[in-house]
Amino acid sequence: MTRGLNFSAGPSTLPEPALRQAQAELLDWRGTGASVAELSHRGAPFMALAAEIEADLRRLLDVPESHAVLFMQGGATLQQVLVPLNFAAPGQAAGYLVTGHWSKVAMKQARPYVDVREIASSEPGGFHGVPPRETWQVPADAAYVHVTGNETIHGVELPDVPDAGDIPVVMDVSSNIASRPMDFSRVGMAYAGAQKNLGPSGATVVIVHRDLLERAGQPRGDILVLKSHAAQGSMLNTPATFNWYLLGLCVRWMLDEGGTPEFARRNARKAALLYGAIDGSGGFYRNDVDAGVRSRMNVPFVLHDPGLDAAFLAESEALHMIGLKGHKAVGGMRASLYNAMPESGVQALVDFMRDFQARHG
Amino acid sequence: MTRGLNFSAGPSTLPEPALRQAQAELLDWRGTGASVAELSHRGAPFMALAAEIEADLRRLLDVPESHAVLFMQGGATLQQVLVPLNFAAPGQAAGYLVTGHWSKVAMKQARPYVDVREIASSEPGGFHGVPPRETWQVPADAAYVHVTGNETIHGVELPDVPDAGDIPVVMDVSSNIASRPMDFSRVGMAYAGAQKNLGPSGATVVIVHRDLLERAGQPRGDILVLKSHAAQGSMLNTPATFNWYLLGLCVRWMLDEGGTPEFARRNARKAALLYGAIDGSGGFYRNDVDAGVRSRMNVPFVLHDPGLDAAFLAESEALHMIGLKGHKAVGGMRASLYNAMPESGVQALVDFMRDFQARHG
Fold first, then answer.
1. A202 interface with B at CB cutoff 8 Å
2. Which of B223, B256, B289 marks a domain boundary?
3. How many CB atoms lie within 10 A of CB B44?
């Protein structure tokens, strides 16, 4: 078996030790005589696992006690509906910072519920940067300010949690959670589809200040009430148990490797390697994102001649490199460098890119 | 390794051949060099798999072309919110048949959106039967009639899809889908959390008449619009890929075993065996559900002396029988006899029950 080098944007590469453990115990987990996927979520073995995983994730991310941690289904997109439903009165203003495709999706999902106000946008400049904080027009009565921590398609990453004064910041951290230390005490809510840095798709992590859970929000079924999920330990209904478990194995691996400080160092080196190769190619490869906000997780780049795209993809695939095709919204290529992508993988990509340029430049 | 006999109500026992295949290919699926959990849902390999699974499920369940098949997240409970949001105008009447715990959950989730009308209820009789069709008070202007095909806690199963005239029937089939042939041409929508007969938790299957998808419904984010999920081939956002895949392996196994006609025969035999043992115990074990609507999937029973419950559970667990503790709402025991539970497993349970009675009777 040859494990490929998987640069997919999500679902994405998972740590091999986590997959090997899942494989070894897939039919008999912890001596229960059953797969973890076959056990009742309300039985003692799974309840113990759920508590372990929450403790591990809190440790990995340094989540303060002021915040609840939820394990849900539905992906980040469902959270983009739950945010206005839970935190805003019907029609209340809510501020949205626009830095790429996913910011716009968040606005679209929220529009039926709140008065969506674009507080600033980098769209006129082609999503190459982040509007400076001093230009943001935050409505004084906004229920919250929503920002996208990392734009997976446009390759733009916020350097930290922005300050919105007394207004809670809600942050989509799907694609950069756990990639570096983050100060979660400064977010009202952070949410993440797990399928990038945390584990498999079908698991969603929510970190939410308990005060926000007390807001009345809007009329809605109980399954859409974040406070109810928190009160039930994320077991308001049957959770996605196997995904939860596999996420737990990935979290444990990240702790074993040294936690977010270590991944911050690794990810900085990996990103420097790839952006260096792009910038040093004399224009053969190009990435136009502003230097200070280039994503360390998702590196979109174009070839100077799009006619070479097919050859680039075919040759990289022959070298067992997976998932380099760029998103259709921006074209070209994209390499996702999540925590489970080793530095050696990025080195192999860079070596291939130089070789490809030498032959096609 | 000893595989236990898993009588859990859900998540529940999965077919061993499906688990073994998942185990074998967990790190390299179909020669891709990656786990299926690591691949982009929009890449050719996973898209092909998704199409195969839909075709297999349509064949297994004999779903007519008039109906779309969706693979979603969030469980049956999320669907209980999507039903009124998608099919009813705000505050419109909707009929609910009450046959147990899960019927009431469905009503609770819908209440913020529609005028919930109980059309009939077996609650006064302790949920031991199904109110006769001729007693149902269906409002003429109801957007739909909701029924629970099988009550997992109270052990009550509808014998078939009820007739509500021109009003579409919406049916929760979480715990009896694929257990016997069902006429899906007669349902407006059927939905099922997969974690009973279809696969792992974290996957939800929806079978919905395409005409119903055209209803305006209520203002809502796009992620709550069933028509959008259908238009995007269940990839409106990142789906739970591994759960979808594992569900596919379970569906393939059911087809290989002979499909729903064969499972109908097996499930009838299994249920007859267990109910026979209960009814033949001279009152040592008891199930009070009306004979014609006893669930073939979930068999709740009580011991004549609740003081024996702890011994029953301890002894059965020592024999590697898992998940026999009844739901806290009804107490006693519950044995779930889903498709993946072999007849030999039910025989082993019945043998144990007779032995237990002989020693404690």
1. yes
2. B256
3. 10
User: Contact at 8 Å (CB) between B234 and A74?
Assistant: no
Query: Is B74 in a helix, a strand, or coil?
Result: coil
Distance of CA B42 to the CA centre of its chain: 28
Å between B272 CA and nearest CA of chain A: 25
Phi, psi of B291 (to 5 degrees): -55, -45
Distance CA A223, CA B108 (A): 10
Instruction: With CA atoms as reference, report the closest residue to B84 among B72, B93, B75.
Output: B93
Residue A8: inside a domain:
no
- Residue of B237, B246, B317, B319 best to disrupt the A interface, most CBs of A under 10 A: B237
Report yes or no: B239 at the A interface, CB cutoff 8 Å. yes
Stretch (H or E) spanning A6: strand A5-6
Name chain B contacts of A323, Cβ cutoff 8 Å.
39-40, 43
Q: If 0-12 CB within 10 Å is exposed, 13-18 middle and 19+ buried, where does residue A93 land? A: middle
A244 as an active site residue: the answer is no
Query: What are the angstrom distances between the C-alpha of A105 and each of A12, A81, A116, A278?
Result: 21, 10, 12, 29
Contact assignment for B238 to A10 by CB distance below 8 Å: yes
Residue A136 appears among annotated catalytic residues: no
ipTM summary value:
0.98
pLDDT digits (tens, 9 = 90+) for B3-13: 899 999 999 99
Is A276 a member of any domain?
yes
Does the distance separating the beta carbons of A43 and B2 come in below 8 Å?
A: no
The token pair at B297 is 């999937």
Contacting residues of A for B200, CB less than 8 Å apart: 37, 240-242
pLDDT digits (tens, 9 = 90+) for B126-180: 999 999 999 999 999 999 999 999 999 999 999 999 999 999 999 999 999 999 9
Tokens encoding B279: 């009814």
Q: Which residue has the tokens 């033949």?
A: B280
Whether B146 maps to a domain, the answer reads yes
Token output for A160: 């930290």
Percent of chain A as helix, strand, coil, to the nearest 5? 40, 15, 45
Domain boundary among B200, B227, B256: B256
Q: What is the pTM of this model?
A: 0.98
Domain of residue A48: give its range: 16-256
A86 and A146 belong to one structural domain: yes
Q: What are the angstrom distances between the C-alpha of A308 and each of A9, A117, A357, A359?
A: 22, 41, 10, 11
Contact residues, chain A, for B20 at CB < 8 Å: 27
A172 catalytic per annotation: yes
